[in-house]
Prior knowledge:
This protein is mostly beta strands. The protein is built from no helices and 64 strands. It has three domains: 1-35 and 631-707, Immunoglobulin-like (Sandwich), CATH 2.60.40; 57-270 and 300-332, Neuraminidase (6 Propeller); 345-627, 6 Propeller (Neuraminidase), CATH 2.120.10.80. The relative contact order is 0.12.
Amino acid sequence: MPPRYPDKPVCSYLWDTTLGAIGHGLLALGILLPDASATDRPLRWRWSNPAPHGGNVLDMTYGLGLTVQVCERGQIYTSEDLQLWHPRNSGTTTALRATTFLGERLLITGESGTVLWADSLEDFQVLSLGTADWIEGIAASGSLAVAVGDNGAAYSSSTGTNWTRESTGFTDWLRGVAYGNNLFVAVGENGRIASRAPNGNWSVKASGTTQHLNRVAFIGTQFWAVGNAGTVLVANANANTWTPVTGVGATNALYAIAGTNDYLVVVGDREVRLQNGGGAWTDEVGNHPSSPAASWTYYSASWQGSLHFIAGRSGLMLEGIRTNAAERTQWIQRQPPIRNWLWDLVRLPEFYVAVGDHGTVMTCADGANWELELVPDTVTNSVLLGIGGTTNGLVAAGSGGRLLFSPAVATQVISTNVIDGVTHYATNTSSTLAIEWHTTTTPTTNDLQGVTLRQGLWVVGGAGGTVLTSTDGTNWSAQASGTTAFLSGATFLDDLFVLTGDRGTILTSANGTNWFAQTSGTTNWVYRVRAVNGRLVAVGEGGLILTSTNGTNWTSLASGTTRLLHAVDYLGDSYYAVGAQGTVLQSGSLTTWTNLGTLTEKSLYAVAGTSNQIVAVGIEGVALRSLLAPSLAPVSFTRIARSSGQNLLLLSGRVDQRVTLQRSPELTNWVDGITLELIDRSGTLLLLEAAETNGPPREFFRGRMAP
């Protein structure tokens, strides 16, 4: 099958590639797949924040009009315009470390000898080189690919499908490889540089440094290598003699270099350095007059023909653009998301609310589109650690005894709409809940976190055994708890308040005033507790999971992990617990837990959802979502047209829906086409394709809902 990259149709968040011809005919929605329970199918996670994704971009390549990024947990993203990024199904959850094109075949390498190859973006083949070595770098000539990695590992392949281990003569770990002037040059730890001649023989070169070298590139007529402590080396086309580059000014680790002979960029840990026209190097992070690069960790860089494109931790991407030779390069982030840590999350009937660092409050109706809400200026230096409440009001608790209250107050909203030049006004009633926040006075400066509300009584727990109560969310009273533990978890079951905290602390109270210590059977931190599915479930340090039906007698459950668990909820027909390093556990009965994992290894601090959706939030603004079962809501064919030799299909539905496009010229023999996923946040998908000259005179379409 020939590669499809060059003629891939233009689309908005297209999951698969080409379609056949579109004719003119009836459009009808077709067969719906039966519902499936959460335990019957794996979760398909998508990034809600940061946008467009939050994967650590460890390497990327540009070719055939396509930019490809590879990340941890098997993540692959592609884009034709650097704005719309499409997640690709890699078929693996191993860490991906490097990528390149071998002709028109895409190659990717990664953890424990993993190699992927693809001639089509919807069909990645996964290979194993049969080694525990991580393959950290890959490069290709027109006819040969070379991959390098741990313990001096080097492999070569003329196809990308069959690989041969080569002898390098050393065991230093290699981190990058580049091709130029009929040579492959690899770099690695302790200043190791080696080159591969056309006959396959490897020879070691003197680098003049013992710093670890992280990447190498062939730019113009020279090889460039970058490494730790701001190291930059350059060599001529034969790669024999390496010279340190002075004046770069970088002192932190550098991870990539890209550009042209006279327009170079090096990036790394809070480092972006630029050389223009062979002149002095400039600091693009700390010494830029108008549009600097963000102070961040950048792992990858590419030259896109007219601009620099750099990317790194948590999916942060910048374009380096200048309009003329005299102008300073401007660094532009097309989709600047909120990257503050998110510590807690609550789901109300109609929307989510998340809270975090710098007084962050974010709301979202569908789990995909998050909006930042305004809080009082005095709160922006506070860390909001917990949130709780109902549709009548919300309380957010945080550092230094900070408490915010958001009442549900009906307010009139006037909207305008201009029709045929005439302005029309409409008055609607809306609520201030989660939008309008007020600071309250509290009798403590201790950090506060656990929040719960039962029958009009608020209870908040915090550091030093702090317990506060309120009947209106505004006036607070301190209560004696009998403990000095940090009370981070709060909930209620029936007529009982429950607080949990460090050192295995569990407290219960019927009135919020008189508190009684319960035996937890552990000294680990019981970080959070929830009343779910008619019982109490608590999670915490060392993979701790406890359950109780009365708040007094607690049973310890085996979670299968030793990682700190931060939150738990019951969604659909399963329990879900999330925690450190991207841990996501699932159980249908509480007795057996399966570690599902997710897209990231960043810690997750809260989880909530609906009967059909799970949402988890965590560090650096991470917000992830997944459907628990296929959505059965109809997908609409909003428009079909043919113009200028192109067919157009516009579909609309709910975010994360998948639909297989079927077609027939006579409404009988339906043929499956591609499967599309609506991951654009508008819930729409625009598909454009070249029309077949000899296509059928008319054609009918329907959508078959896909899992």
